[in-house]
Amino acid sequence: QVQLVQSGAEVKKPGASVKVSCKASGYTFIDYYIHWVRQAPGQGLDWMGWINPNTGGTNYAQKFQGRVTMTRDTSISTAYLELSRLRSDDTAVFYCAKVGSSWYEFDYWGQGTLVTV
Amino acid sequence: QSALTQPASVSGSPGQSITISCTGTSSDVGDYNYVSWYQQRPGKAPKLMIHDVSNRPSGVSNRFSGSKSGNTASLTISGLQAEDEADYYCTSYASSSTYVFGTGTKVTVL
Predict the structure, then answer these.
(1) What is d(CA B72, CA A105) in angstroms, rounded to the nearest whole number?
(2) What value does the mean pLDDT of chain A take?
């Protein structure tokens, strides 16, 4: 069965960086884009960007450009989100999600990683 | 890219039908048939309920249906049940291979 398992909670100081991992299993990792979504406490979902695990190509939401880096390691079927220059308003749960067969929906999600700044 | 607009809350009695709207622009909802809907229960990851405006993934109840007219997409829940109480978010593909989420709607079953 498809699973996306994310790394554990993090506590960071303002100005620091955080790297969150998302390990995929149950499907061919390089066949489906991975997206990242942020959710601040009590707030809505905020799309951050995607990575193509096959090529490493990325596309970031404008509001995160310059601070976000998405990478992957195909040898261990894992995607990474790195957010730099953390601010207190970056305190949030970060989710990874894979696209589905129709390419434009997110059919499986990780359990979320809480980052506290 | 501004968030898609959803009502903050919608409520209904068991057995009733409710509809959640999701209003975007001609650059997102109005231009693409790639609207999805997600259900999120407290402390849980979102769950896909509808994709490509009106397609229901396997395992999702047929009480959930989606539609679109112009720049507004809609999610209808018929035969409302207590288990439907959750937050619901729409999302749309937009220009330049980006996505935008809706502001979210809290559904309360009275």
Answers:
(1) 18
(2) 97
Size of interface A-B (CB pairs under 8 A): 64
Query: How far apart are alpha carbons B59 and B51 in whole angstroms?
Result: 13
The DSSP element (H or E) to which A38 belongs, if any, is strand A34-39
The answer for A 64-103 residues in CB contact with B (under 8 A) is: 95, 97, 100, 102
Helix (H, G, I), strand (E, B) or coil at A62: helix
Beta strands B72-77 and B47-50 are: unpaired
At B1 the pLDDT is 77
Residue in B40, B57, B101 closest to A47 by CB: B101
Q: Tell me how close the Cα of A17 comes to any Cα of chain B, in angstroms.
A: 24
CA dist., res. A53 & res. A77, Å (int) = 9
As given in the structure block, the two tokens for residue A74 are 């195909």
- Give me B17's structure tokens: 């039908």
List the single best residue of A45, A103, A113 to mutate versus B (max B Cβ within 10 A). Answer: A45
**Å from B59 to nearest chain A CA?**
12
B45 C-beta neighbours (distance < 10 Å), count:
21
For B6, nearest residue in chain A (alpha carbons): A44
Cβ proximity of B10 and B102 under 8 Å = no
Once rounded to an integer, what is the mean pLDDT over residues A54-62? Answer: 97
Low-confidence ranges of chain B (pLDDT < 50): none
Distance CA A30, CA A77 (A): 8
pLDDT of A37: 98
